[in-house]
Amino acid sequence: MADYGDQFMSNGDYDDEMGGNEYDQDISPEDCWKVIGSFFERKGLVSMQIDSFDKFMSQTIKDLVMDKGSVTLDYGKHPEPDEINPVVIERHEVKFLDVTLSYPNVVEGDGVTNDLMPHEARLRSLTYACPAFILMSKKTYYAREAPSDSFENLEGMVTQGTDGMQLYWEVGHSNDDIPEDRPESVYIGKIPVMLKSGSCWLNQDPSKTKTARKIYRGYFIINGSEKVLIAQERSAGNIVQIFTKASPSPFTHLAECRSVVEGGSRQMSQCTVKLYRKSDGPDGTKIENTLKVQLPYVKMEIPLAIVFRALDIVSDSDIIEKICFDHSDKEMIDMLMGSLQEGQAIQRGELARSFIATRTSDNKMTASQRQTMANDILQKEWLPHIGKGADSLTQKAYYLGYMVNRLLKCALGRTEPDDRDHLGKKRLDLAGPLMTNLFRSLFDRATKDFFRYMQKRNWGDQKKLDKAKAGVSQVLNRYAYASTVSHLRRTNAPIGREGKIAKPRQLHNTHWGYVCPAETPEGQACGLVKNLALMSLVTNDVPVGPLRQYILEKDVETIEDWEPKLNSQATKVFLNGVWFGVIVQHPRRLVDHIRELRRKCIVDSTIGLVWDIREKEFRITGEGGRIIRPLFVVENDTTNARNGGPPPEEPCNWDILLSEGTVEYLDAEEEETAMIVMTPEHLNDSKIRDGGGIIETGDDPLARHDPLLTGANTMFTHCEIHPA
């Protein structure tokens, strides 16, 4: 790491030049190193892996089990011919009430359970894992074809069987191990524990942490072998991306959105809108510039106008209003004429929904079943991150219009297509999300051997090799301390190594400050396996639901109340990819207010705030997997290190620096809206130049040569903590 302390001019140099202390530095190189030291003292080098795993153990496991709720098993009885009013179905209902995790232990050969420490797991070739228990309650029900005496006494229920017969249910009792109506903890298996996490002995019992300082953190011990989970790179969800297609492709542009609902099921659905060169019209003629939408579970692409009418946006003027917010934009309206002509044969919502349902795999539905099928697809399966109820259809119509608007702007040459390799469009899955996906599939199959996947190099269900990820679990490199730290901060792009595509392997300009530009292996994995920079972190999911109601109270209109004809230049507000409101006037006030809340840590300091002035969008995201890094905050060409930081002789505290607005985290997308100066010296040079002063140039041939600042006044928003 380069030392840039010698290149700073002393305060006396400024005094001689400017005649006083007016341009004294507000932060010195020593202060920068204090801040760097406080960061590593608080965060370390593998805290992101530990934080991700802690969230999985403390919250995600319980959410997954509670989302499952219960399991119902029906057992058909075969009664005797002479039995009167026999039981035809026996039902067992098991409810999941809570999850309990213990600390790592081992069951000895004599049946005694002892605490298990990491060094003991290494020496005895054991797995450092903790047992997991689920608190369950069970009820048994019996179904008869006629009511019995106990049916009336127990207030039973009546349902209809598959054969049309009425079934009379009553509460019964079984002779199983789990008693009725009394919850009991049931052992479901063991979960490997990451060292120095919240579930590890090294982080709990001081009497057992004699070797804690000598043990590196952030890995697992599986059968005595040290294993590390490599962070997996993936595309971000809930964002719209526009791409171009060259000939001979039948379409020229593509709008794509991977809709992801975080939670127990983690539902994923992809929506694409394509701009075709030519397509067949309803009367057999060729129509230019038609737009078609791909819906889930629908075999054919649906014309855009028909999708809008299925959402009860019927008239052509209403469809244009949802897409082209400015009615004076004749170019964009002309581009929509082909799509409106293609859908002119269907002018009612019922016909549009029937049109969609008939293009699914089930062609033998009645009219009412077709309406139900289309409504289920549009409400529950299509763009599920916006909502899954009938009240979300208006928001989905606006979101579809937003996708088409972005697509047409790119087709008209007003904006550039998106870059797939932009770091802001990517996310990293650390130990928490990786183990969440594995626990979800294993719990669904009621499997107990959680750690056997770590014994193998593939991650995921072996029967679904297309979804399995290779090389996620690796043996920790112990050749040297640097190689161990490097292995714990490694990332992998799941792209075929045999391909010769160059762009994913190249160093992207958005990697600055987030990814090490030099450390990557040679050969097939070059550029696909990367390492994070030392001061970069990876975020966890942050709940941003309470922010929605708070923002709506700050002169923000919901999109249901917005009238594009009157306020076509309003700024759109997104929360985790969901467009829910618009700012009609003065968007800077809201942006500055939310940013101030983040700098005071009233809202989480890792939340991303992107104000895209050109596109008139304000995007707030608390999504996990974003790569962030800290920077000094600059206000009025002065860093806040002296305003809110400790005196120079006192040590820094990273949490205080964050809460007082001295430093803040930025991700790759938000960094594109910031103006960052490389060093505090450059910031002072800018102030001198803005004040009419002259900057002296030194004669040292070994001095660092940096690009000159522009002559115009520059308003910086952030400053690098260290230029390396």
Automatic annotation (TrEMBL):
Keywords from the named record: DNA-directed RNA polymerase, Nucleotidyltransferase, Transcription, Transferase
Record GO terms (molecular function): DNA binding; DNA-directed RNA polymerase activity; ribonucleoside binding
Coiled coil: none
Record's keyword annotation contains Nucleotidyltransferase: yes
Start and end residues of each RNA polymerase Rpb2 domain: 286-429, 474-537, 573-635, 654-723
InterPro entries: DNA-dir_RNA_pol_su2 (IPR015712), RNA_pol_bsu_protrusion (IPR007644), RNA_pol_Rpb2_2 (IPR007642), RNA_pol_Rpb2_2_sf (IPR037034), RNA_pol_Rpb2_3 (IPR007645), RNA_pol_Rpb2_4 (IPR007646), RNA_pol_Rpb2_5 (IPR007647)
Protein name per UniProt: DNA-directed RNA polymerase
Organism field: Cyphellophora attinorum
